[in-house]
Design goal:
Shape: globular
Low-confidence stretches: 202-212
Strand content: 15-25%
Number of strands: 10
Length: 212
Amino acid sequence: MAAIHFDPETHRYTKINDGTEVLSATQRIRRAGLLGPAAQFYTAESAYRGITIHRGCDHHDHGRDTAAFLKSEYGGYLTSYIRWCDVMEPVWTAIETPQYSPHYQTAGTPDRIGTIGRLPVILDLKSGAKARWHGVQLSLYALIQDSDIPPRNFRRIALYLRSNGRMAQSVEYTSNYDYIQALALCAPSQETPDATDHDDLPNDRDGDDGPQ
């Protein structure tokens, strides 16, 4: 991996050494038409919800005070995450850290990288419904970590948080076909960003917010 800068205002990734813009995992998925109805359900409210939930989870994982988040209208999602952490005891080595693969010319921000039971994991937090493209997204994140085919044995997990505070549901994506699709999305013909194609889904992460 090489150094990359993510601008939360413009939702763009650029190389630190020369400022060149790099396509993100979400952009590649969107260009392939894999987002489906998720794109149309993206609203300012869903963006705020996703950002608030991610901040609450971030506070928890860094040992900060989460009282305000737990009292908010989205506190159930954070409770859902905390209950899952209490049971699974993950050890995170990277939390929402922008990353970039020169080999695949792709950037992205996995929500969590670490281990569960000493096994390496790439995990993405989801506050909406399950979607087929989540497995492809996680595969792109794995390829960013390791350009070998297949990548190192990362468990690819989407963690679906529940608004009612019940323990989050973890879904492990294991299909090798997700890697095949991810590699196809990294084809040279898909390389060039344009002015209208930017990451307007919250932080290149929570594009699944739709009907609950």
